[in-house]
Amino acid sequence: MNIIRPTLILDKEKCLRNIERMAKKAETLSLDFRPHFKTHQSAEIGEWFRQYGVQKITVSSVQMASFFASHGWTDITIAFPVNILEIDDINILAGKIKLNLLIENKEALLSLDKFIRFPVGIFIKVDTGYNRTGISASKTSQIDVLLSRLKESSLLEFKGFLSHNGQTYHAQSRHEIFNHHFDALLKMRALKNQYKKEWPGLKISLGDTPSCTVCDNFKGVDEIRPGNFIFYDLMQFNLGVCRFDDIAVRLACPVVARHPSRNEVVIYGGAIHLSKERIINIDGKPLYGRIVVRQEGKKIFLDEKNYITSLSQEHGIIKVPRKDFSYYRVGELIEVIPVHSCLTANLIREYLTTEGELITME
Question: 100: closest CA among 72, 124, 123, 117?
């Protein structure tokens, strides 16, 4: 592999192992497995899921739904509040596949009901504490308004309640992940119990990689939608969600300069490759990636004292202890474990597998 610029390296064997593990967990817990494809966004990688029985998927946009529909996926949930400005594209999709949409307010629901031309499934987006989007689980009066309208619709079919328990990504420990998950579980289960008599077929859908990886109590849940688990990343590793050996991607970057006087190394690999997603390092400073180097044919995962401390558009600055400068040579490659693999993959748009195969997001 002749790598001359920032390149996202993908380990297919690890990806398959991660998919198989999550698929088996869902099967063991009698959960529908609807993985989120926004992490990899690749038709070819999407095909890897089929060998583990996956037939239903999640995406984050109408465009992404259209892309995967064109590659044979016929049961898709768009896990983003419906944007009524895209109604023409939504109607095209709904006329071809089994499509589920998210609603969290009356305005979007009324517009959708007015302009939709084909049957679609509707999930009500519930906020279980992440405070990004959705109706608070306790505000059942708002839910009642939406359900009342859905009863009158001939083309909008209420499917259930959907939540993304995103606060688990900001946990400080596995114990905190368990707490966030159990809190979300109680809220969603309460909604199911309140409405299941009137809507006996309603489903509860949860989707965050930390909970889906480490938790086993999904009582009352019908479906899980994790996405990041196929690659994992430094954020998941720091949370204790995955092992280092589970991380399936890394960004290969050329070393372009060394500055021993200020304990820094410059790489060709910046914000347009890694994003500016960060976590806090052990020294209390922002960390944008950790480093893997090769020595005598072996890969070495360097400690937290070797880390990307700042990013500009093309440049990455690595803070390096003086004793470790010999690992970095101008004109050679180092590898960066990204903080958030979803964003890095979205920026790079293609993968080079460890077998030398190029996989694109086309």
Answer: 123
